[in-house]
Structure prediction request, 1032 residues.
Amino acid sequence: MPQLLLELFSEEIPARMQAQAAKDLERMAREHLAAAGFLPEALKTFAGPRRLTLVAEGLPLAQADRKEELKGPRVGAPPQAMEGFLRKAGLTQDQLVERDGVYMAFIEKKGRPTPEIVAEMVEAIVRGFPWPKSMIWGTKKLRWVRPLKRILCVLDREVVPFAIEGIPSGDVTEGHRFMGPGNTFGAQPFVAKDFDEYAAGLEAHFVVLDVEERKERILEGCKTLCFARHLELVEDQGLLEEVAGLAEWPTPVLGDMDPVFLSLPPEVIRTSMRTHQKYFAVRKAGETGLAPHFITIANIQAADGGAVIAAGNAKVLSSRLSDARFFWDEDVKVGFKPWLEKLNGVTFHAKLGTMAQRVERIEALAAEIAPLVGADVAKTQEAARLAKADLASQMVGEFPELQGVMGGYYARQFGLDAEVAAAIEGHYKPQGPSDAVPTAPVSIAVALADKLDTLVGFFAIDERPTGSKDPQALRRAALGVIRLVEENSLPISLSSVLRKALEKSAESAFANVAFSLREGRSTYTFSSSSGDIESHESLSFLGSDEMWDALVARRKLAVDTALPQLLAFFADRLKVTLKDQGKRHDLVDAVFALGDDDLTRIVARVEALDGFLKTDDGKNLLAGYKRASNILKAEEKKGALLVGAPEAPTADSDAEVGLYNALRLLDKPLKEALAKEDFTGAMTQLAELRGPVDAYLDGVFVNEPEHRDNRLKTLTAVRDAMGQVADFGLIGG
Amino acid sequence: MSREKPKSFQSLILTLHNYWAEQGCVILQPHDVEVGAGTLHPATVLRALGPKPWNAAYVQPSRRPGDGRYGENPNRLQHYYQYQVILKPNPENMQDLYLGSLEAIGLDLRTHDIRFVEDDWENPTVGAWGLGWEVWCDGMEVSQYTYFQQVGGLDVSPVAGELTYGLERLAMYVFGVDNVYDLPFNDPDSPLGATTYGEVFLENERQQSEANFHGYDVAVLKQQFEQMEAQVPLMLARSYQDKALVLPAYDMVLKASHLFNLMNARGAIAVAERASYIGRIRDLCKMCASAWVEQQEAA
Prediction:
């Protein structure tokens, strides 16, 4: 069966866009082929620095002929309907066949030749390709990520003829920009009529087509270089992905770094290498710390073996690291105090004030959290006050990703307390699901305060994540809080810390209002934590006392509105976390419905509940709960149910007596277990209900008039008892 | 075509001039108003707009008052040269032409590692952006390569391709010099004696740095800025032979832009004001761009 080979050859495609482009090409091609009735036996796409390639195996040379049946108007329908139908079908009335009182048209559609369909497909793909950013060039109107130079398109070894804005299809492509076969220089076009010729041609012309092979080539090359020098590569997956998109013939070259720079923090050296130069760092085999070398991934096997490339890159790195050392030297001359002053001039967010104001809030909040997590209050305050100072340092100005890390280095350099330095360094953590969580109390307090201030601030000004958009990374902040609390088993009430954070945030906004009042400004834009206080024109007719009171009322309202929204946001995040750990999200709902907001307790409850529902007793008791609760719901519709504990059953029924006794016996141990936060114990207690509940529901007719009230009270008692553990009604079957 | 490898800063410039002249470019001289980058020369900003073809190359002295280091930093200058090429519409083989220019100045592409690394260029003060790359030679950025998409807030058509070479940095790399002030300005074997870049510009860097950071009177700068700003629409309202005076108006935009850079270097622009100043300059630039396009399309 024929093979289709398509290559879209362009100027250099940004590395970060290549992987997605390969996926988009595959998806679009599959959709178009499927719409034409083709199901290729295999379809694969590739993306590299200058080309997107698609190969599809097993396409027919034409579509199959198709017969279409079209249902027309009924016999005796108005003539307009018949006319319309004939126009649509392109037929005359005598070509129609009458069947069951309806006119039918039978149309034979000749299958179209595949090249026609492919030509349309390529045009549609090129014109509709979802590049994150595209451009026009020259005099063309066509958009592509960078100028599109060639289109190779062969089906069954024949060129599929078409042209898109003057770019004709063909069977010619070119290889590496500089290296040609047999040691020649410069790109040389070559013909490829199928994928085997194409792959062989590219290899001969120094292009590795498959990104996975490029990555392997890079890693293998790096390891060979390292082995010879007794070095080890500092692996970096993100960097590997990027450099694999920057070279068609990736060729690692080892260069030397002046060892004098090893006195810089290793994070600085690595960041400088990675962000500015896209180099890999290396270390001495079996040692920690970096070795004075680097590996750059060149795109060429240089005529001189890479000596010029190594020397050139070494020089560039030296000047980068000289800058870094200059920043370090300047920074240690300055120190925290001037940096903190500078933060007054740094806007955190137009509505949330300056970075200095944020620091004040974090410090106050951290001080309140400190005793809850066993941290020294004075140290916590110091760490919180200094945590953001490094943002004003030159080093962080140059390498923003080193925020926190540099603060830690500078704190130690200035001889600050080790716990304080660690808290400064770690207060942004955890930054992702795989990032480590701080465990030292001072670090925990500052890390929590940092994230809580972010969350309440942006919630109050209504900048919340929507769909896939989360520009302030609030989900990550909430997840950070959850992990800090959970992994350190902190006994913290979420609502009380959130309320504290909201109040700090509101106070900070208030300071601005007060300032504006003092300045006598009639209108002010200020950092508001409370969302709806933004324009005070509506208040300006009031005297300042009344205005103040109105603000106080609004502030309270804002805190009261934001709090439940934040709790719901946390519940969602916790659900996602627990789901990632394999827990059911409905269990989280069932536990959250109790109104408890101690994350550690919630997680323990969910875990106990999860375990319980996996047992036979658990499953059956849940089923019993649902039956009981359905009966209660049906009866509630007839009128409010009586409240109160059930009385001892008067009817002579083992099932009734059994459940009555079981409920009485359950009460005390269940409450005790819950009080001790022994949720597994509470579940064990609940399991005792399973047999009696089953027997009761199977053997007792609730709606017997003389016993109805008491029996409904019994079922209510079952629901209430279970409800102390979780809202079983929210758990899916 | 065999060329002798340039031996000095000035012969590097002359080599580029020759190379681009051979490709058919008009070789221009610098614009005589202070600018922050070669792009701002009207030969690029204005000529990139409108339907007419335009191919030019020139050196543009560029001033970045805030980058001054009193001549003490071996890489940073408040006054330096950019080599600027604009090709409109960009030819199909523009990348090859560019690589040819690197070979012309003596870079052997068999031994150097040349890479096109994504870098989307943007200049908010003139409302311009484009897609392209920084070009790396052995890990060093030697040029900026851009396909303009918008200038003065207007879509371009046809597209101009722009090349910017940072001449000092490129020369330091080609000549293996670590300190810009050590660059040979003329041929080191010149019968009239060798002159270094430092001999030409070091004192200028010292004095201008002091002026940029401490010398200029902020109140005067601000006043001049506002005067220039007010003059632009007035100048555009005048016309000669039915054409609004775009070219003089644009010079005033450039002056306003430079005055802004000076105020910025003096630390006279608060963070919150910055965006608003840039917006004001952009608005002026847009006025000029629209008037220019109108004239180009009418002609």
In short: Chain A has five domains: 3-62+114-204, 66-109, 211-333, 339-579, 599-730.
